[in-house]
Design a protein that fits this description.
735 residues, 22-stranded antiparallel barrel
Length: 735
Amino acid sequence: MGIARSLSVPPLVLSCLLSVVGSQVLAQQELSGSVTDESGSALARVAVRLVDQRGSEVATTFTDSRGVFHFTRACDGCAAVVSLPGFNSTRAAISNDKPIVLTLHVAPVQEAVVVSATRTETTTSQVGAAVTVFTREEIERRDVPLVGELLRATPGVTVVRSGGLGNVTSLFVRGGESSYNKVLLDGIPLNEPGGTFNFSNLTTDFVERVEVVRGAQSALFGSDAMASVVQIVSKRAPRGVSHPSIMASGEAGSYDTRRASASIGASSGVWDGAFHAGRQHTANRAPNNDFDNTTIAGNGGVTPSANVSLRIVGRTEFGRAGVPGATAFGRPDMDAFFHRRDGVVGATLDHQISDRWQQRATYAVSVSHQQSTNLQIDPPYVPRFDGRAAPFTFSDFPYDSLTDLRRHYASYQADVRVGGAGASEQLVTLAVDVNAERGVLTNRMAGSVVRASRNNFGWTAQHQWFGARASLSSGLRVEQNDSFGTAVAPRVSLAYMAAANTKLKFNAGLGVKEPTILQSFSPSPSFLGNPDLEPERATTVDAGIEQRLFGQRLKMEAVWFNGRYRNIISTRTTSFTPFQSQYFNIGLTRAHGAELSVEAAPVAAMRIRGGYTLTISRIAESTSPTNPVFAVGAWAFRRPRHSGFMEGIWTLDRFSADLRGTFIGRRVDSDFSSLVPPIIENSGYAAWDAGASYHVAVPVTLYFRVENLGDREYMDPLGYPAWRRTARAGARLGW
């Protein structure tokens, strides 16, 4: 009896002892590791399989946002296996002695990690939307000076540039309007209020990656994401380098083209920073069409602890271009010009609270100062082209306008992993975005000033489910806009691996776009603003299949898409004497079609890529019924039915050569010059470019490019002749 009493243990103490022993046993049984790519970057939400010695699957788990995974069990002689499209499969023995690192090496035709498709880092194999990514290596190899030119090699995309470099450059995606594309720099919106974005002087300088997500994405990014999202990702200083990295380049070529740039970057321990400056000039083909642009950009960050980081990015573009007008139909305007100064700076704080909860806060300011001026009166002329002539004389008129735009952007986003470890993973994203838009439109000739402001709020909720063979993303955004009130935009996206190298995908969503400042606030009776305008809206659906063959050396993709764009804003005449008009929601356009693309790496030295897009568009409700160009039943303006691109790249040791082609079919256009008979269609064209580079030594690479190899004469759009055959040569240096 006494012996029994002496061995008794209080229940609370016993519980504590059992808890300690249990945790030690679990720790001994836990198997863990991380998954990275070749650069050492973590791969999040990747399925990791635990297999026994016979190759049978024992368990499945997923990596977290840091690429770390855990199996809460013991398994003697087991291995961890990771298979991901675009990467070569890898496996390694795993035990509870220490965590392992699984490094995925890219396949011949590789995939990428994107943030624009879900607002979180996700591999493209887990994304249901149609995505195109241009990497740093591709951007450098193409050596195009402007982002707009880079985007020509994107399925579903048509780029229209009014003549030479620096002129108005518009992006049309899947039959949508040119203002239906949300443009971001490291997550910071760059669009003007109302969605307008002119790609004329957005350069490829200091750009690490460009992501293009097609389809309505307002559920994630709010207003303007009607047809696509284009995200520019800034370069960073390389990590793990003991000395500063320095890059410089310079080139010269036809049309008095000159370009030079220099970058410096450094990192040490908890901080990194990079700075870039670039300058380019061209006289272009037409008189008074000189284009000058300066780019200054920077990216720096500090990581005081393993779970906290602060990053600041900035970019500014100073551009000036002469505006000669439609020189194919008449004499150039010899003094008109367009001057543009754009700038953005933002700070982002990332905090990994736990392995299940990450939060991010961003604040940014973007500004755009634009001046459009024509003070001298050029001689009158009669437009003529190819035997056609206008029935009356055109006269020049003076103008002098200023547009000053400012946006304060604040965002908070929380990403939370829910559910337990196992064969699936779930991620919930909650975000709130605030856009404070300010604009001042000044007509210095008339002495009028329009001041406008809008404060817009958007709340986003998204749920992502990841399984071993499928991923499903669904989300909803409530957009509260000072102009149109409240709009709701849902979205759903599915990716399903029907086989190891066969992916089925589906994406559907609604898009909204706010009116421009002019459309809402213009006081002019000739184009009176309307404060009661509703948002323009889009409904888009796409579905497709991706197939990889021959050891991932060939990837083929086919996507069907359908879009409905309604409430399109345009002016309607309200009085003829005197003439008056006002903005109303009066247009509806439908578009459907298909995107076909192929990417191949038959041997290590060769890479082939191409795409074709069929866009069947139709104006269902016209914004200008009496104009045959915009009549009901006509094709959407400047959107070709057939378009495509192709490129071949060959690399051998220090030498590299490439051949690229762009193909644009006929499309509806207008001479806008009252020619008789009128020109209402622009014929198609094919333009070929070629280039070569040679790595002379460690710091020096020489390159040479020829554009429009066939010296093809064409207009894009009507009235604006494109460059004829041009050549340029340069050198890149890197230490």
